[in-house]
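Morning. Coffee machine broken again, so started the prediction first thing and wrote up yesterday's gels while waiting. Chain of 435 residues, entered below exactly as on the submission form.
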Amino acid sequence: MKSAQTMRVALPSLGARLTPYIPLALFGALGAVLSFLWKWPCRFGGAWNNGTLQFTNFCYTDIYPLWWNEKLNEGKIPYFDYPVEYPVGIGGIMEFFRRIASPMADPAVAFYDLTVILMALCLIVGVVLMAALAGPARRWDALWYALAPSLILTAYINWDLAANALALAALLAWSKRRQWLAGVMLGLAIATKFYPLMFLGPLFLLTVRTGRWKPFLQTVGGVAASWLVVNVPIMIGAFPGWSRFYVFSQERPADWGSIWYFFNVKQWPFLGDPERLDTLGIVSLGAFCLAIAVLAVTARTRPRLMQLCFLTLAAFMMTNKVWSPQYVLWLIPFAVLARPNWKPIALWQVAECWYFFAIWLYLVAQKPETAVLGITADTYFTAVWGRVITILIMMGFVVRDILRPDKDVIRQDGSDDRSGGVFDGAPDKFRLALS
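Came back before lunch.
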């Protein structure tokens, strides 16, 4: 009797906790629908089957052509029958939907549609997770993720929204002080897309300042365990196919969107040298990370976890060999959680949208017969640098907020780090004082 009474009390409490997130979930669903409608000329108009129209209609996706490119149409199992240039999380999604789509009348379109349904759910879940991370007073900041213009344009180019949902789940678990769960989810996120690995850096730096080593090591253990569980079976059974992603990432040249591609095309001395590309990328990322580390351990007030996550992720993107249009999805939640000021975010969104249109017009111009429909390399590179400059501006404001906590809108209510988990309110055990 007591148990039933407890359940009657608990259920309304759970409902009360979930109710505020329902409108945000609906806005996430709206963003998912708008993203699907954006692909209308390709999905319903046949533009996918025309190398020019899919670009001039701005509805390109990787998902549809990969049905053939990854030999899914031949029934080949990723990694085992054909090497796939994606981590195993995405390979698993591809294989799952291959099995469902293969018997259908138009399996390539069915494969796309099924993938979109999953990515839409990942977006909705991601919006709710972001709102929970932001806290009750700031949960509506998640609208930036649900309805950002760049999200609507890029949501279904690839499988990035799945990694986003896992990464946000990991950080929410950390904020709730469930370190093992945080590690498991982060390991799965890394097994889906590589970028969530960068979040271990901020966790480490804040652990150095607070001395909270046990929670950090538990999370690292969870990361290692979940990553190994999903990767080792593929490594043992199909190592050449499994390693394709890592070999491809190492061997690929400077590609579209990256600053290295600009230096390469413009043939800059040293910076444009293909032989130095890997070294330049590692050194530049290392320099960014070193600067972030110095900031983290010397700032008078300890930075918030989301501030450091944003800075490290932005550094990773800007120094990468490729910067695809959909990578903006990685950064949106963390840019907002780090500093929910609409002006620099809106400026950045303009730059991202310009890049989205510019890349397809630039690709159209690569063929002599359609060059008149496209744009020149110089015009395209204004979009490349527009993204870099606007992200650097946001990074600058975040650094200022760290150095001047009174400017940090998140801390104006007197809180420390609501999404920081064990770091929230913890005393500093180590700080390197420079002045």
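The longest helix spans residues 107-134. Going to sketch it on the whiteboard this afternoon.
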